[in-house]
Design a protein that fits this description.
Blueprint lengths: L2 H6 L16 H8 L8 E4 L4 E3 H17 L8 E5 L4 H12 L3 E4 L6 H10 L4 E4 L1 H11 L23 H8 L6 H13 L10 E5 L7 E5 L1 H14 L8 E4 L6 H12 L3 E4 L5 H10 L4 E4 L1 H15 L15 E4 L6 H11 L2 E7 L6 E4 L13 E2 L3 E6 L18 E7 L5 E2 L3 H7 L6 E9 L5 E7 L4 E3 L2 E3 L1 H8 L5 E11 L3 E10 L8 H15 L8 E5 L19
Parallel strand pairs: 1-9, 3-4, 3-5, 8-9, 10-11, 11-12, 23-24
Antiparallel strand pairs: 1-2, 6-7, 7-17, 12-13, 13-14, 15-16, 16-18, 18-19, 20-21, 22-23
């Protein structure tokens, strides 16, 4: 697609069919073995490197163990508790080989939310790195022996056959040629496979009620999104080196990782976001592509600046091999975009998406580059329309003219199957004709680029790339004796994207209280019950919050200074 077409494209109601480059996840593994670079580094950590054929062998060994020893079968759901590490991807692909459903768990969830997810998903077991499993057991008050499935790298106190590492080693001598083994796994489910309707992944995301919702995705959802994403980026197969600093339990981090794997790139894993380690890897591992959320870029730039100050003449390009930065998860400000481009001397591509769309909806293309305030063109295999959320009318999109603002709705193979065991919420967002209501407001500008207005029909706040539902915070704050009513709203913030602002209507007897001390008490109350990321960043105190005739707080009428 030419640049001139990119600038004027308005055919958002049509769809360009892309043949899927991969039939299944087993075909991705087979693809890894076909690289002209024999025995290349598929994954790099600070402790070890995992070659492409070693990775495939581990996947096959684990899949064999899961099927033969623990009797997992098609449709079983298994929770994954990992940092950014190769074991996550070995487990992820092994589960898909036998038709089981991976359920990546947000390890930053509160114990209450994690308990809810594990029960709601009806998991058959848990695959976890040992330390996270121990933490989970402690938080949820059960012994480690009660974890339904044995753990990766289990401690010595557990039965010998509980270690997946030992199981992989045990089955390794039995494995024939890797391609033949993949063919055998593929044959087991080929007759039953339905990419369009079969649940393959279950990813939980924050909901407007405060309870996580299980987004049901098929293999076709993910493979279609990968195909559309690939057309937008200028990535050289068999040569790139992606740095993974995004959490793999978020759909954004997962799709970037899977994209890197399918391009036969090297994935350099940073277990948790660590600016110092990222800077070190950027300097020593020849990283070429770096996907992060805006707040991570801010912290990284500060760390990189400290690093370059240690040399007499700071380099014009501090990380010579880095050529592309991908930003998503929250809005990228124009000033931060300029800072990344000027300080790192790279191309920045901002994108937009949701877990429900597998997740990418739009992204700035490599041929066009970043445009401040725009998230680029919709993927070529997605349809997009703007709808007046009051009248339901589909708004017109004309070449060379900016459209009116409307709710962004999309359709195509990337759109989820629905919410797991939640038909009511599914019908709210999925139209009968297949269109998905994002709940986000936006418009198409005169150059045909999508711009997000920042307004949302759904009551979620995106703080540092994390979706946070206000309701749990409001419930906790309401417990304080000084609080009569409370509403938590987003507050624009250069670093976080959106900060959490707690708007408090005080009890009459508390209006003369010391507000600084009260803020400390309220923050301590939130931290006692919720994770630290839910703690309000700011407070505003009111004698009375605006309410409708029924007494419900009208958030849109609250004025934040």
């Amino acid at each position: 697609m030419s640049q001139s077409t990119l600038q004027t494209r308005t055919d958002f109601h049509t769809i360009e069919e892309l043949s899927l480059p991969f039939e299944s996840f087993s075909s991705i593994l087979r693809h890894l073995l076909q690289s002209p670079r024999t025995h290349y580094d598929a994954f790099v950590t600070s402790e070890y490197r995992l070659k492409n054929d070693e990775f495939v062998q581990q996947v096959i060994g684990l899949a064999t163990a899961l099927k033969k020893e623990w009797k997992l079968s098609k449709g079983n759901k298994v929770a994954l508790l990992f940092w950014n590490q190769p074991e996550f991807f070995v487990s992820f692909f092994a589960l898909r080989l036998i038709g089981a459903v991976p359920v990546p768990i947000n390890i930053l969830m509160t114990p209450q939310d994690m308990s809810y997810v594990l029960q709601h998903a009806e998991v058959s077991g848990i695959l976890a790195t040992e330390i996270l499993a121990v933490q989970l057991a402690t938080q949820m008050n059960f012994s480690i022996e009660q974890v339904p499935l044995p753990l990766w790298n289990a401690n010595a106190a557990m039965p010998e056959d509980s270690s997946f590492e030992r199981k992989i080693t045990h089955y390794a001598p039995c494995i024939g040629t890797l391609n033949e083994e993949l063919d055998a796994f593929d044959a087991l489910s080929r007759s039953e496979r339905s990419h369009n309707t079969e649940l393959a992944f279950l990813i939980y995301t924050s909901g407007t009620t405060g309870f996580p919702k299980g987004v049901m995705l098929s293999e076709r959802n993910i493979l279609s999104n990968l195909a559309g994403f690939q057309t937008a980026l200028n990535i050289k197969r068999d040569s790139e080196r992606f740095l993974l600093g995004l959490p793999v339990f978020h759909c954004y981090g997962l799709i970037c990782s899977l994209f890197a794997i399918t391009e036969r790139a090297t994935v350099i894993c940073v277990p948790r976001f660590n600016p110092k380690q990222i800077v070190e890897f950027l300097k020593t591992e020849d990283v070429t592509v770096l996907p992060l959320v805006p707040t991570m870029f801010t912290v990284l730039l500060q760390a990189a600046k400290r690093k370059t100050k240690q040399v007499d003449t700071p380099p014009e390009k501090p990380f010579p091999t880095l050529h592309t930065c991908i930003s998503g998860g929250a809005a990228l400000s124009a000033s931060l975009l300029d800072m990344i481009q000027e300080n790192l001397n790279v191309q920045v591509l901002e994108g937009y998406g949701l877990s429900e769309t597998s997740p990418v909806i739009a992204v700035n293309t490599a041929s066009r580059g970043a445009v401040a305030g725009a998230v680029g063109q919709p993927l070529v295999n997605l349809r997009l329309r703007l709808v007046n959320h009051e009248t339901g009318d589909v708004l017109s999109i004309e070449a060379g003219k900016a459209s009116a603002e409307g709710e962004i709705q999309v359709a195509g193979d990337s759109v989820m199957l629905g919410y797991y065991k939640n038909e009511d919420e599914t019908t709210k967002v999925l139209c009968a004709d297949g269109w998905f209501k994002t709940g986000d407001l936006g418009h198409i500008d005169a150059e045909g680029l999508l711009r997000i207005s920042g307004g949302r029909l759904k009551d979620l706040i995106i703080r540092a790339g994390e979706n946070i539902a206000p309701l749990p915070i409001e419930r906790i704050l309401s417990q304080h004796t000084a609080v009569a009513h409370v509403a938590v709203l987003p507050l624009k913030d250069e670093t976080l994207g959106e900060a959490l602002c707690a708007c408090i209507e005080l009890m009459p007897e508390a209006r003369e209280a010391d507000q600084k001390s009260l803020q400390q008490e309220l923050s301590a109350l939130v931290r006692e019950h919720l994770s630290a990321s839910y703690t309000p960043d700011a407070y505003r105190f009111f004698e009375e919050l605006p309410k409708n005739p029924t007494g419900k707080i009208v958030k849109k009428h609250i004025v934040l200074e």
